[in-house]
Amino acid sequence: MGLAEYMIVSEPDGWTVLHDGNAPHRYDTKEAAFEAAVAAASLALRQGHEIHVSVPGRDAGNKTALGAQDPQSVP
After folding, report:
1. pLDDT tens digits, 14-45
2. Contacts for 52 with CB less than 8 Å, ≥ 6 apart
3. pLDDT band at residue 71, thresholds of 50, 70 and 90?
4. Where is pLDDT greater, at 65 or 15?
5. What is each CA distance from 5 to 51, 68, 69, 73, in whole angstroms?
6. Measured at the alpha carbon of residue 66, what is the angle toward residues 60 and 69, in degrees to the nearest 5?
7. Cβ–Cβ < 8 Å for 44, 63
8. DSSP SS3 for 73
9. Is residue 46 over pLDDT 90?
């Protein structure tokens, strides 16, 4: 079997999951993108693939842990 890689990537308007060179969906939060990647990875796992999931830390995107706008910073 092959390798299935899922990379959470910051976009100007949110987040996406890069897989096989494609990133067709947009997510409002890094957490939502992660949940989508893990769901896809679960299917690949059942098919016997090696799985890699990578998620950037707080320094990526809008600099919050979950990748969503911090409600405390909204005026």
Report:
1. 999 999 888 989 999 999 999 999 999 999 99
2. 3, 4, 5, 6
3. low
4. 15
5. 6, 24, 27, 34
6. 85
7. no
8. helix
9. yes
**Is residue 53 within 8 Å of residue 37, measured between CB atoms?**
yes
Q: In what order do the strands lie in the sheet with 50-54?
A: 14-18, 3-11, 50-54
Residue for token digits 């890094």? 30
Nearest to 51 by CA among 62, 64, 38, 63: 38
User: Which of these, 31, 39, 37, 1, lies nearest to 14 by C-alpha position?
Assistant: 31
Q: Are 6 and 49 in contact (CB under 8 A)?
A: no
Q: Three-class SS of residue 66? A: coil
Is pTM beyond 0.90? Reply is: no
Helix (H) or strand (E) holding 5: strand 3-11
